[in-house]
Amino acid sequence: MKTALTIAGSDSGGGAGIQADLKSFAANGVYGMSVITAVTAQNTQEVRSVQDIDNEIILDQIEVVFDDIPVDAVKIGMLSSPATVETVADALKKYEPKHIVLDPVMVSKGGHHLLRQEAIQSLKEKMIPLATIITPNIPEAEVLIGGEIVSSEDMLSACRQLRELGAKTVLLKGGHLEGAPNDLLYDGESFHWFSGERIQTKNTHGTGCTLSSAIAANLAKGHTLYDSVKLAKHYITIAIEHSLALGHGHGPTNHFYELYRKAGVKNEL
Ligand SMILES: Nc1ncnc2c1ncn2[C@@H]1O[C@H](COP(=O)(O)OP(=O)(O)O)[C@@H](O)[C@H]1O
Ligand SMILES: Cc1ncc(COP(=O)(O)OP(=O)(O)O)c(N)n1
């Protein structure tokens, strides 16, 4: 069985972070492993508090997995601090996994900062150049390029600027713009739009985590980058369509594998 490792924060509410990643890995048919960078006390309404994990323990978690178990793809989410960005980047340079999917998580839906302001530069310099693909949403991309994105044309130009930061490929997610949630993939040569239709629901907690983990799972299984994104876009659409009205805020995506299988998606090599 192929494997994927998530390096991310824990969401006690189970909708985003490590918990969403592991569910997405399982639903997409890979064996999931985790390195926890921070623990958030979080539900569908708020992030109440955050405790960063010591960097020695983050490093131990990475080493103990790589020293023993094959890792076919890595997904990176919440990194919290500059020291964590550096610890993770240094370790990945040592182990050189074939695929690194970087979701540059910055702020939760409720407005809580999951990446400190002073870590943004380290993320740009140390982590983005290691990535096979980065998957920023619109506000994250705006921070990374230092400019506004309000239209499809802006998305095209933002992708070019984001790629100049050193990632091999950029998937700029359009969920935060008005209208259809269309995502744009750019590999330095060509652009591909992955178009979607907006599903009318407030239950979109963890959409970014779900999508990036599904991409990592598909890469782990040997799909091309284009196919990995295409399959993952299909997966997130179904997971939002069937999202769960749990809690009083933004409910989580639904990783019910049977639903995915019955939808007729052939995701096996
Ligand atoms: N209401 C929606 N209906 C359908 N797809 C959506 C909706 N909201 C977001 N998406 C899709 O979910 C994925 C995550 O997008 P986005 O919300 O932009 O990122 P994030 O969760 O990181 O803020 C993207 O593929 C986006 O197009
Ligand atoms: C621990 C943790 N990691 C990441 C996020 C952000 O997840 P995302 O998929 O972008 O979903 P929203 O927070 O925007 O709903 C998180 N909240 N917690």
UniProtKB/TrEMBL annotation:
GO terms for biological process: thiamine biosynthetic process. InterPro entries: HMP/HMP-P_kinase_dom, PM/HMP-P_kinase-1, Ribokinase-like. The keyword Transferase applies. Residues 11-254 form the Pyridoxamine kinase/Phosphomethylpyrimidine kinase domain. Gene3D superfamilies: 3.40.1190.20. One of its GO terms (molecular function) is hydroxymethylpyrimidine kinase activity. Keywords: ATP-binding, Kinase, Nucleotide-binding, Thiamine biosynthesis, Transferase. Its EC number is 2.7.1.49, 2.7.4.7. The keyword Metal-binding does not apply. It catalyses: 4-amino-2-methyl-5-(phosphooxymethyl)pyrimidine + ATP = 4-amino-2-methyl-5-(diphosphooxymethyl)pyrimidine + ADP; 4-amino-5-hydroxymethyl-2-methylpyrimidine + ATP = 4-amino-2-methyl-5-(phosphooxymethyl)pyrimidine + ADP + H(+). One of its GO terms (cellular component) is cytosol. Pfam families: Phos_pyr_kin (PF08543). Pathway: Cofactor biosynthesis; thiamine diphosphate biosynthesis; 4-amino-2-methyl-5-diphosphomethylpyrimidine from 5-amino-1-(5-phospho-D-ribosyl)imidazole: step 2/3; Cofactor biosynthesis; thiamine diphosphate biosynthesis; 4-amino-2-methyl-5-diphosphomethylpyrimidine from 5-amino-1-(5-phospho-D-ribosyl)imidazole: step 3/3. Belongs to the ThiD family. This is Hydroxymethylpyrimidine/phosphomethylpyrimidine kinase. It comes from Robertmurraya kyonggiensis. The lineage of its organism: Bacteria, Bacillati, Bacillota, Bacilli, Bacillales.
